[in-house]
């Protein structure tokens, strides 16, 4: 394991088991298959969902340690070091994947994601050890994104169990089979905070997404089922419709401000970062939700996978009301509050 700065611990630790270089290509108009397109400006930034969370938290001046598999000379490591992020990297022999995002002028995005480097049992064990080491004394551990080839589908559940002894709160943001395996592993493996979008909530409930987006009562019942399984807090992101937060204290809905969407890549990650930052600041549930939506909206208004600074996020422009108001939007809607790809 390589650590890029002295010391251990930190307020927040993130794990990005499947990091990437995120290359965003701006299209001059709607994507037309089979044609030659003259691209506008392009952006290449270090990515992966946990990396995006780390970048947003670091931009707020909060200490964060990013755990990821990558060689010392990998472009992702060099880019993150240039940003001043604290890294705990596990060297591997395969270059980090590149993900491509095609953005159209109206904010529509098309994602092309490579599968990522295959990790063997040794690399997975080294990542787990690094996360555990830095989680001791941390306030939050964020396990985020897809799992790389070679990782067991229930690996997040294993990590949650092993991290309980550190005392850190645990957030998970993943999808598909790893998400289903996490919730199927039992109450000792559930995180403190889960951040699904409507598609993922429907997967967990065993329902079509239309059932969740078309009926607030169905959505609330699906969220309540997560609490029954032991999840303390559920941050349900609704794309351009905002987000919903459900805790033991109640349920709140948030509507984002109107923005001009430039790129939706990383908007959900910024939402999660905004939530964690608000929790670190001691805000109540409504305040945490307001900050999450403000960060997600600010991210969607930026190019590429850029993350917002606190000055760019405007919680005062977010409307928060008790309960679940209106109908949740499907994950395909423009994700001003975050429903981005893994």
Automatic annotation (TrEMBL):
Annotated spans, Disordered: 30-49
SUPFAM superfamilies for this protein: Ribokinase-like
Organism encoding this protein: Modestobacter versicolor
Family to which the UniProt record says this protein belongs: Belongs to the carbohydrate kinase PfkB family.
Top-level taxon of the source organism: Bacteria
Name this polypeptide is given: 1-phosphofructokinase
GO cellular component assignments: cytosol
Keywords for the protein's UniProt record, in alphabetical order: ATP-binding, Kinase, Nucleotide-binding, Transferase
A Pfam family recorded for this sequence: PfkB
PANTHER family documented for this protein: 1-PHOSPHOFRUCTOKINASE (PTHR46566:SF5), 1-PHOSPHOFRUCTOKINASE-RELATED (PTHR46566)
Domain Carbohydrate kinase PfkB, residue spans: 37-310
GO molecular function, one term: 1-phosphofructokinase activity
InterPro entries according to UniProt: Carboh/pur_kinase_PfkB_CS, PfkB_dom, Ribokinase-like, Tagatose/fructose_Pkinase
EC numbers for this chain: 2.7.1.56
EC top class named in words: transferase
């Amino acid at each position: 394991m390589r650590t890029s700065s002295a010391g251990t611990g930190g307020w927040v630790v993130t794990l990005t088991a499947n990091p990437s270089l995120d290359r965003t290509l701006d299209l001059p108009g709607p994507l037309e298959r089979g044609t030659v397109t003259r691209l506008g400006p392009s952006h290449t930034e270090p990515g992966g969902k946990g990396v995006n969370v780390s970048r947003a938290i670091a931009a707020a001046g909060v200490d964060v340690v990013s755990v990821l598999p990558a060689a010392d000379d990998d472009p992702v490591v060099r880019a993150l070091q240039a940003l001043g992020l604290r890294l705990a990297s596990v060297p591997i022999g395969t270059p980090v994947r590149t993900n491509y995002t095609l953005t159209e002028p109206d904010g529509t995005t098309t994602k092309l994601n490579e599968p990522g480097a295959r990790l063997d049992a040794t690399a997975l064990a080294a990542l787990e050890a690094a996360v555990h080491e830095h989680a001791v004394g941390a306030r939050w551990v964020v396990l985020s994104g897809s799992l790389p080839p070679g990782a067991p589908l229930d690996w997040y559940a294993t990590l949650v169990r092993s991290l309980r002894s550190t005392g850190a709160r645990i957030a998970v943001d993943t999808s598909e089979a790893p998400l289903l395996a996490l919730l199927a592993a039992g109450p000792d493996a559930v995180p403190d905070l889960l951040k699904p979008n409507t598609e993922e909530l429907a997967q967990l409930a065993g329902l079509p997404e239309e059932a969740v987006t078309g009926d607030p009562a169905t959505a609330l019942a699906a969220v309540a089922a997560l609490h029954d399984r032991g999840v303390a807090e559920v941050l349900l992101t609704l794309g351009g419709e905002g987000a919903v937060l459900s805790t033991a204290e109640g349920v709140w809905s948030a509507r984002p401000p109107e923005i001009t969407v430039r790129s939706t890549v990383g908007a959900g990650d910024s939402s999660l970062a905004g939530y964690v930052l608000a929790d670190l600041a001691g805000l109540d549930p409504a305040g945490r939700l307001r900050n999450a939506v403000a960060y997600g909206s600010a991210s969607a208004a930026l190019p590429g996978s850029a993350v917002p600074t606190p000055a760019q996020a405007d919680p005062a422009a977010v409307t928060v009301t008790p309960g679940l108001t209106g109908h949740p939007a499907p994950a395909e809607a423009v994700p001003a509050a975050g429903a981005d790809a893994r």
